[in-house]
Design a protein that fits this description.
Number of strands: 7
CATH class: Alpha Beta
Strand order of the largest sheet: 3-2-1-4-5-6-7
Helix content: 40-55%
Order of helices and strands: EHEHEHEHEHEHHE
CATH architecture: 3-Layer(aba) Sandwich
Mean pLDDT: 95
Number of helices: 7
Distance between the termini: 36 Å
Structural class: alpha/beta
């Protein structure tokens, strides 16, 4: 059996109606996992779940809409996953938001709180919701999609970068707490990826050229190029890895 085989595993992927989340859910299903598609709009979730079920068999995916700022909604997501699939083996915290662009000195309290709540606190909530059963079973994988923004300063997305740096520490802390029970917690730090979230940085060819001129690979990444790392962290292939961050950025940060 392949180290990457996920047959019999159940994975929740937030922000999975498009971009990195959708690509990750598809790749997890490709390796045999049951997947739960979640984002804010039920219709968008239904469409992705239907696409996965058509490709990998009915019952492979379900769709449960949830807003990451709504704790009760996230609890419903976890409860519904357990009701349908019986358990949660893998959690992929992919959903995030960034309502402010500009110097950190100019961010409003409400904007900063929204970034911190959606990008850190919601991950903390979800981890607390799924971890008890993982610890009881003695295994589980929690994956936080952070960003290379958490490794660098920025005059434009400073608030977002602060939240993504905190995600690295969230993973390290939970790795220490849950490691003795066999539960692993890791991060992925993507660079610029061709998603709707980063559309302003690649939609115009000249902007894309400027965005990638310092990258050794001279291009931006595709969502599928992050999905492979999600499968790695979800599977036995990464069984001895916890509390770490995998940087996937075309070499930008080197």
């Amino acid at each position: 059996m392949s180290q990457f085989d996920l047959t019999g595993k159940v994975a929740i992927v937030t922000g999975s109606s498009r971009g990195i989340g959708k690509a990750s859910a598809i790749e997890l299903a490709e390796q045999g996992a049951k997947v739960v598609i979640s984002s804010r709009k039920q219709e968008a979730c239904d469409a992705v779940a239907a696409e996965i079920n058509a490709q990998y068999g009915e019952g492979t995916a379900i769709a449960v809409a949830a807003n990451i700022s709504d704790k009760a909604g996230l609890q419903h997501l976890v409860d519904e996953t357990r009701r349908v699939f019986g358990k949660v083996d893998v959690l992929v915290c992919n959903a995030a938001s960034n309502p402010y662009y500009g110097p950190l000195a100019g961010i409003s309290d409400d904007q900063f709180r929204k970034i911190l709540d959606n990008n850190i606190l919601s991950n903390h909530w979800l981890i607390q919701m799924v971890a008890p059963e993982m610890r009881e079973r003695g295994e589980g994988s929690i994956i936080i999609i952070s960003s290379i923004g958490g490794l660098r300063g920025s005059p434009v997305i400073g608030g977002y970068n602060v939240s993504k740096a905190a995600d690295f520490q969230l993973a390290r802390n939970y790795a220490v707490e849950y490691g003795p029970d066999g539960v692993r917690v890791n991060c992925i730090a993507p660079g610029l990826i061709r998603t709707d979230f980063a559309r302003a940085l690649w939609e115009d060819p000249e902007t894309e050229k400027r965005s990638t001129k310092g990258a050794p690979l001279r291009r931006i990444g595709e969502p599928e190029e992050i999905a492979g790392a999600v499968v790695f962290l979800a599977s036995k292939a990464s069984a001895f890895m916890t509390g770490q961050a995998i940087v996937i950025d075309g070499g930008v940060t080197i």
